[in-house]
Amino acid sequence: MRIGFDARYIRWDHHDGISRFSAGLAHELALLMGRRTDDELVFIISDNRQRALLPPGETVSVTSPTSWREPWVARHLNSADLDVVFSPMQTMGSRGRSYRLVLTVHDLIYYRHRTPPPQFAWPLRLLWRLYHLSWAPQRWLLNRSDAVVAVSQTTAGLIAAHRLSRRPVFVVPNAADRPAGKRAPQPFSKRSRRAIYMGSFMPYKNVSTLVKAAELSPDWEFHFLSRINSKTRRHLEGLAPHAELIFHNGTPEIEYRELLATSRALVSSSLDEGFGIPLIEAMAEGTPVLVSDIEIFHEVAGDAALFAPATDAHAFASALARLDDDKTWSAQSRKAVIQAEKFSWHASAVRLLDVLDQVGSTRGHGERL
Length: 369
Known about the structure:
alpha/beta, seven-stranded parallel β-sheet, globular
């Protein structure tokens, strides 16, 4: 069997969530496929710079996934003689395909929070808004596949609740990269009274609650690690003029890992999420997480997290104060390490390969649509 892996969402400058998901699965899937003698893994790319971020192997180059030609990408891929293609997104073109197709749904956030990602050019932002005005485009895309992957049980439940697909839905969890060389988590005595936030400043991320909680936690430093524009920064600083707010405006991987290992908590007051990779990254370092009381965070963090209502700054500040106690902090740290072990790219790749085996072994190729 020849399996195609759509690697066009892998970014060569820095990973976002889809890029990290793609890269993590690609490497582990290549290891699993390397143990097979009769099967082949083919990476689908749109930029030669993506080759350097992929395991050695066959590649086929097609247009960008945001190109106007995307609806007809199957015409090119048909010549690669693939049995099944996996895409880490749900928007891959399928018209005229001769292979089985598995699409991915990460979340349904933008149906409730329709502001598009700011890095998109205005034509794509317009299409983004139009796409999310109705469930119809999503249903149409998913029903033209042979199977759907969801990155969490929460997302799979939402797909079912909104009747988005007649195709079988499988859960292949997100995961997180682990630092090279396993090390014991730093104890409470080595941790600074520092809360860190890793994520964007999109409105649904609700970062304002964290800033207000910082104002109520005068002995704590709040570090915001992602890139931020000056207008948003001024707004947040104005909400808490006496808080210790530190904006990194982007954090290199080594610095991020060091902050995870030496901080007392990772925090998020998000109103909605598809998964929450930073939670796993923090828990793997034994760093307790304090997060909003939403379904997906319960799925990812379990009892290893402290929870607070998403818009209640006082509740966040109160929960954070609990982590000033060595005994409470150490108990949460131990739970965090155990919970993080439940997620790995290897385990997710095993699940994905099982899905691709099931779909790809179905008699014949995908219909020409």
